[in-house]
Write a structure and sequence with these properties.
Blueprint: H1 2-22, H2 29-50, H3 72-104, H4 111-136, H5 143-158, H6 165-182, H7 187-211
Helix pairs in contact: 2-3, 2-7, 4-5, 5-6, 6-7
């Protein structure tokens, strides 16, 4: 009986080694949960700052003053809020990934991790530059849809180097971004749903699927 199971165990071990060498498997489900929580906190802070009406929240109306000139305080708050959410999410994701790698006896920074970072960076950097150009031309209402769309594309691009589930997360973010483009007045709500709620749901699913 033992001789019959040995080939299966050997194949499983070979498959595990190949997966570790080609895919970044140190992503932690709780990182998604924390990212979602940070996004919801950021969206709530924006809601309080702009005092928008959830039924008809023209948040981008605050981008200009009554005289029609750019409102500097709006842009400072908008980008500071988003930047803090991004940094907090990255710090927690890196910490949890490093801790998970240490528990599994793996290197946190290996070739698979480099491939993930590279494939995410290209769409994200491109999307960030595109957002700057959008703001430059005064189309502030498109910033949130664009961030969701490019983030979704970055996840889809990265999915082949990590868990396949990342692809479905990216598709969801892409769909939410397109919906935010259609209903542009509700950008803040779509931002909270895309980066907040969906991340939390995804993180919980990942935890119960791979880490419990």
């Amino acid at each position: 009986m033992k001789k019959q199971t040995e080939p299966i165990e050997t194949l499983s071990e070979i498959r595990s080694i190949m997966e570790r060498s080609t895919r970044f498997i140190s992503l932690n489900g709780f990182a998604g949960v924390f990212a979602g929580i940070f996004a919801l906190v950021g969206a709530f802070a924006a809601y309080l700052n702009f005092r928008t009406n959830l039924i008809h929240p023209h948040y981008y109306d605050y981008a200009t003053t009554s005289e029609g000139i750019p409102n500097l305080s709006f842009y400072i708050f908008f980008f500071t809020d988003a930047f803090l959410v991004l940094i907090a999410s990255i710090v927690v994701a890196v910490y949890l990934s490093v801790r998970k790698s240490a528990k599994k006896g793996l290197k946190a920074w290996d070739n698979s991790a480099k491939r993930v970072i590279y494939n995410m960076s290209v769409p994200l950097v491109g999307g960030g530059l595109f957002c700057i150009l959008i703001v430059y031309h005064g189309y502030i209402g498109l910033v949130i849809p664009v961030t969701l769309i490019f983030y979704g594309l970055a996840l889809i691009s990265t999915s082949k180097y990590t868990f396949d589930d990342i692809r479905y997360l990216g598709i969801c973010e892409l769909i939410v971004g397109l919906m935010a483009t259609l209903w542009i007045d509700y950008g803040l709500l779509f931002w909270a749903f895309g980066f907040g709620v969906i991340h939390i749901v995804y993180g919980i699913i990942m935890y119960y699927k791979y880490e419990r």
